[in-house]
Design goal:
This protein is mostly helical. It has three helices and no strands. Helices cover about 45% and strands about 0% of the residues.
């Protein structure tokens, strides 16, 4: 894939992996769930956001309550 990124902050190096999921509210758009998943998996944030949208459309909105619950429970 291309190295096109839309966030302002540089990505965290893979060597600083903490092994624990956390929300990333400064880089997040809604609650910081996708940005937190980006920090946890070291994937591109756009890829995770697109996967959430496609998963929500394919799952008839099932990922919406999962997203909200993750945003409320994490951190």
């Amino acid at each position: 894939m291309s190295d096109l990124r839309f966030e302002d902050e540089p990505r965290r190096p893979a060597t600083s992996f903490s092994g624990k999921f956390h929300l990333n509210k400064p880089r997040g758009k809604l609650m910081g769930v996708c940005a937190g998943l980006t920090d946890y998996t070291d994937w591109d944030v756009t890829l995770i956001r697109v996967a959430f949208v496609i998963g929500t459309l394919a799952g008839f909105g099932l990922l919406i309550p999962i997203y909200i619950a993750t945003g409320l429970i994490a951190d």
